Amino acid sequence: MAITRFGGNAINARVVIHGGVAYLSGIVADDKSAGIADQTRQILAKIDKHLADAKTSKSKLLSAIVYLSDMSKKEEMNAVWSSWIDAANPPVRACVGAELSSPSTLIEIMVTAAVD
Length: 116
Prior knowledge:
2 helices; 25% helix; 116 residues; 6-stranded mixed β-sheet; CATH 3.30.1330.40; alpha+beta
């Protein structure tokens, strides 16, 4: 079975497709000065683009892991997530508190999606 990789750098690919599943690496916001809601919106827009590049969409999400630097921001993030997600086809999801790559990185999201 073929493996397709694209995006990213020498350390990691942005997307790996294998066995009908697209695996996206952890995605962070570009504008780290933004608050949790705006960082979440930036990330979800990037996820939409990467899913489209992989010939899939958020309606085919299988799983998501949300890493938050501050769990007290979960409800604010959830409001943005809920307005973005395909409510008819939600993925399984975990949301965990974590020390992220920099103090200004408030959130990182990693998803998998089915690819036809």
